[in-house]
């Protein structure tokens, strides 16, 4: 038949199935990208919380650090743990700060630094 042009119903359905599979793959890839960006944002905020705690301890070095504290930053509560340990230099405290979301048991960021014992004296 000479005047028949266009697609048959089967061809149209096959094209729709191919488009549906491609769209599902794109959505999965976009979701994975959003999840990785969220994780990166969380690590960056945890790093800021840790850096802020280092600054607080440096400025107020005569104040004993809290072993466990909750800090609110960017609308989320962060669990901050500070551990002090001996160092080879008697004038320095070796400190470790671990920061993670309040509901997560594992920290996202762990930062080691040294605090001068004589800074507040």
Protein architecture, described:
By secondary structure, the chain is α+β, with helices and mostly antiparallel strands. The chain has a single domain (9-116), classed as GSPII I/J protein-like (Pantoate--beta-alanine Ligase, Chain: A,domain 2, 2-Layer Sandwich). Helices cover 42% and strands 28% of the residues. It contains one helix and four strands. The chain has a four-stranded antiparallel sheet, with helices on one face. Strand 2 (76-85) and strand 3 (92-101) form a beta hairpin. It is rod-shaped, with a radius of gyration of 27 Å. The model has no long low-confidence stretch (mean pLDDT 87).
Write the layout of secondary structure elements.
Blueprint: H1 9-59, E1 68-73, E2 76-85, E3 92-101, E4 109-116
Antiparallel strand pairs: 1-2, 2-3, 3-4
Structure summary:
This protein has 121 residues and is of the alpha+beta class. It has one helix at 9-59, and strands spanning 68-73, 76-85, 92-101, 109-116. Strand 2 (76-85) and strand 3 (92-101) form a beta hairpin.
């Amino acid at each position: 038949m000479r005047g028949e042009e266009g697609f048959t119903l089967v061809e149209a359905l096959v094209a729709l199935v191919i488009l549906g599979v491609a769209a599902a793959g794109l959505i999965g890839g976009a979701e994975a990208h959003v999840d990785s960006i969220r994780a990166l944002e969380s690590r960056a905020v945890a790093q800021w919380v840790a850096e802020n705690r280092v600054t607080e301890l440096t400025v107020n070095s005569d104040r004993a650090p809290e072993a466990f504290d909750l800090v609110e930053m960017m609308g989320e509560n962060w669990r901050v743990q500070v551990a002090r340990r001996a160092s080879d230099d008697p004038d320095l405290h070796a400190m470790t700060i671990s920061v993670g979301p309040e509901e997560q048991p594992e920290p996202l960021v762990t930062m080691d630094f040294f605090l001068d014992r004589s800074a507040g004296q």
